[in-house]
């Protein structure tokens, strides 16, 4: 199997190349240190089966390289940052390795790649990888009601809100329960693909937004299910990001 390394730090690229030679049978055809040089080569040559792709490069991102192609090869992302994990799912990503890449991590990534190639089904690997990563997000909330406790899965929660410095969740059945988390903490703990902070007092789930209407002062008025007791307003500074979130 042939591969390219696209990495803007030469020492890191050389180290990765050495690991590939030591632990795999993959042949590295070329190494590029910029978005521009990689794109120029890829537009003149047949794309290899695999890219080892850094995300933050000096003149752009690894995503820029992929967006310049008509179809995506299989990709193993190598990066010093974990904030791009969700973006990586939009591409033909087999694995996402944080620098410095270790030999055992590389071997594991190549084993995933072999499974993809033998099964001819990258969706399976993507689904498994996504499931592992989503384990970082909160799945359940332990709620105390009187002297008893109960666990509420996030799938049964329509939205979160705060009143008088107290945070609540609203279940699909319309029950409001006090939770021991601030909205700031919830915003970090919940999957951002599903939940959005529309103002200082509310986090909503895309599955439970019924309608969206224009509102004065460049804000938005939304209806939720179950219905909230007050008007639900998307603050003016959140409107653009909210629209982008819904238009993914």
From TrEMBL:
Transit peptide listed as a keyword: no
Residue ranges constituting the Response regulatory domain according to the UniProt record: 2-114
This protein's UniProt keywords: Phosphoprotein
Domain HTH LytTR-type, first and last residues per copy: 141-248
Pfam family for this entry, one: Response_reg
InterPro entries assigned: CheY-like_superfamily, LytR-like, LytTR_DNA-bd_dom, Sig_transdc_resp-reg_receiver
Modified residues (4-aspartylphosphate): 54
Keyword Phosphoprotein: yes
GO molecular function: DNA binding; phosphorelay response regulator activity
Name of the protein described by the UniProt record: Two component transcriptional regulator, LytTR family
Lineage start: Bacteria, Pseudomonadati, Bacteroidota, Cytophagia, Cytophagales
């Amino acid at each position: 199997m042939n591969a390219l390394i696209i990495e803007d730090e030469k020492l890191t690229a050389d180290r990765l190349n050495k690991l590939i030679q030591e632990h795999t049978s993959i042949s590295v055809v070329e190494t590029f240190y910029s978005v521009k040089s990689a794109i120029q080569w890829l537009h003149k040559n047949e794309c290899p089966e695999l890219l080892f792709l850094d995300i933050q490069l000096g003149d752009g991102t690894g995503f820029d390289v992929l967006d310049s192609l008509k179809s995506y090869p299989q990709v193993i992302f190598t990066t010093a940052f974990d904030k791009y994990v969700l973006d990586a799912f939009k591409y033909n990503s087999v694995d996402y390795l944080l620098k410095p890449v270790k030999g055992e991590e590389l071997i594991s990534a190549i084993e995933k790649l072999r499974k993809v190639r033998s099964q001819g089904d990258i969706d399976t690997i993507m689904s498994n990888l996504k499931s592992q990563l989503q384990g970082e997000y909160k799945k359940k909330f332990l709620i105390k009601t009187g002297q008893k406790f109960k666990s509420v899965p996030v799938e049964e929660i329509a939205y979160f809100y705060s009143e008088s410095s107290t945070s609540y969740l609203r279940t699909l059945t319309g029950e409001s329960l006090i939770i021991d988390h601030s909205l700031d903490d919830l915003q970090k703990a919940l999957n951002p693909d599903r939940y959005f902070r529309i103002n200082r007092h509310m986090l909503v789930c895309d599955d439970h937004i019924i309608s969206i209407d224009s509102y004065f002062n460049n804000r938005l008025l939304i209806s939720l299910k179950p219905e909230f007791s007050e008007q639900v307003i998307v603050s003016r500074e959140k409107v653009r990001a909210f629209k982008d979130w819904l238009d993914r």
